[in-house]
Amino acid sequence: MNLVNSTTPAMLLIFLLMISPHLSAQQKADDSNYKLIWQDEFNVDGKPDEQKWDYEHGFVRNNEPQWYQPENAFCKDGFLIIETRKEKKKNPYYDSQHKDYRLNREFAEYTSACLITLGKFDFTYGKVTMRAKIDVKQGLWPAFWMLGTNRSEVNWPACGEVDIMEYYRDYLLANAAWEGEQGTDWDESKFPLATLGGKEWAADFHVWEMVWDENQIVISVDGNLVNEISLTKTVNKKQGDNPFKKPFYLLLNVALGQGGELIPDENIPSKMLVDYVRVYQK
User: Fold this and answer.
1) Which residues form the domain of 135?
2) Which residues contact 259 (CB under 8 A, 6 or more apart)?
3) What are the pLDDT digits (tens) for 136-180?
4) What are the pLDDT digits (tens) for 46-63?
5) MF terms per GO, please (predicted)?
6) How far does Cα 69 stand from its chain's mean position?
7) DSSP 2
8) SS3 106
9) Distance between CA atoms of residues 182 and 271, nearest Å
10) Torsion 169-151-69-44 (CA) sign
């Protein structure tokens, strides 16, 4: 049920005010059935816990301009900080004749970090919560999301993708993607940041939650429903399987300049602060 795309911002706000108490009560009732199975509170200054996190490296996806490197992620004062920087980075794999942008770019103009739990932790079904403060300036694209662990075998989107928190061009997004007949099928939800209070809202910490079982994925922020995805429709059209009934791993990153979006110099450096990430299962 894509609530956001079927309502105006004013209608959406009224609807959220009506449903929020119900959602909170439901969550409290469900909490007693969950047990914490994985967490990171980021309480130790320095590098993120290498027992829990790995990293993506270099140019990775979407023709984005940032170079991912571990140096842009660190823990301080009880927070994970992912920092974007404007700095030139030479591509050691540069090949001017190659068609792949990840190889034919000689330099990166920006750096950031993408933390992943692939090879460290994955799960099927449960509840995930994250408390974080995101930067919503132009050119920034913070995200907390999941990919199927079989991505290297079946490729994207057949591995499945869930965007628990994604900010892009004035909207919070909550999406799921899987394999379609001609490309990618999406269940997309766009939540106008202005409805919540815009930049003032983004100046504070907020809690994102995903509840995932064999029937659906429900994504909320501060107890407000953002998207509800039925898993009856998420069958890969060519593979014939349902990726959302298999293990997934977590990703935390800040990308830049998606789709050629201008990145004003005054918006870099920027920081995404994560207070905790917790995973529960029944």
Assistant:
1) 4-281
2) none
3) 999 999 999 999 999 999 999 999 999 999 999 999 999 999 999
4) 999 999 999 999 999 999
5) hydrolase activity, hydrolyzing O-glycosyl compounds
6) 18
7) -
8) coil
9) 37
10) positive
Domain count, the chain: 1
Report the alpha-carbon distance of residue 40 to residue 74 in Å, rounded. 13
Closest CA to 136 of 89, 196, 193, 209: 193
Distance CA 94, CA 258 (A): 22
Tokens of 276: 């905790």
DSSP reduced 3-state for 28: helix
Claim: this prediction has a pTM higher than 0.85 = yes
Residue 134: how many CB atoms within 10 A of its CB?
Answer: 25
Residue 265: CATH number of its domain: 2.60.120.200
Query: What is the phi/psi pair of residue 181, to 5°?
Result: -65, -45
Length of the chain: 282
Backbone angles phi, psi at 195, to 5 degrees: -65, -30
- Per DSSP, helices labelled H in the chain are 9-31, 101-104, 151-154, 193-196, 198-202
Sequence-separated (6 or more) residues with CB below 8 Å from residue 229? 162, 176, 187, 216, 217, 218, 219
Residues 158, 149 contacting (CB under 8 angstroms): no
Tokens coding 108 = 């990166």
Radius of gyration of the chain (CA): 19
